[in-house]
Write a structure and sequence with these properties.
This protein is mostly helical and 194 residues long. Helices cover 80% and strands 0% of the residues. The protein contains 8 helices and no strands.
């Protein structure tokens, strides 16, 4: 259950950013190409650094990498929220806003990609040849459900403010990190956590 909740949180957090951040960044003065570059930067680094995080999870442990990734996602979203809010308030605009927001998205792409490969590896180790496909499928289902719930949750939370959906994704990421800390052990079989 722990891995499923964390997969859901990862999927929801990423799609909330895609749905909410784009229009808000444009309100903060970024042009459409700048918004595209900003969002793509984080995603590109996220994809490129997955092999690095896979190797690190092999060395330091799957649980540590997963918890760190969920906490990093929350931390980067908090930073992003604060800078985006400052830009929306007019504290800075133009290239300063673009560079600040793009740097935070890049930081997300560097620090957060470890959850996916570490959870897949943990699930692979915790399942047998007969149950492996269904175990991996649960992780994929969690991520997919998260990508559905992210925009739906954003719609509900948006009535409390334009930035509320991102705060919701921060809370969900931190909740998932706590669940991983409590449910998984560094040496346990993951069967209990699925």
């Amino acid at each position: 259950m722990g891995l499923m909740i964390a997969s859901l949180a990862m999927g929801a957090g990423m799609t909330v950013n895609f749905v909410v951040v784009t229009p808000l960044a444009r309100q903060a003065g970024l042009t459409e190409p700048q918004v595209g570059i900003m969002m793509s930067m984080g995603s590109l680094l996220f994809a490129m650094l997955m092999p690095f995080w896979s190797r690190l999870a092999d060395r330091v442990g799957r649980k540590r990498v997963m918890v760190f990734s969920m906490a990093a996602m929350a931390g980067c979203n908090i930073l992003f929220l604060l800078v985006l809010d400052a830009a929306l308030q007019g504290a800075f605009a133009g290239l300063w806003g673009f560079f600040a927001l793009t740097s935070i998205r890049a930081l997300f792409g560097i620090l957060a990609p470890g959850y996916h490969p570490a959870s897949m590896a943990m699930m692979t180790e915790a399942t047998t040849a007969r149950t492996r496909a269904s175990g991996i499928g649960l992780l994929g289902a969690g991520m997919s459900i998260g990508t559905i719930l992210g925009p739906a949750g954003a719609m509900v939370l948006a009535q409390y403010g334009a930035l509320a959906p991102i705060w919701g994704s921060v809370a969900l990421s931190l909740f998932a990190a706590v669940i991983l800390v409590l449910v998984l052990t560094a040496t346990s079989s993951t069967r209990k956590a699925v």
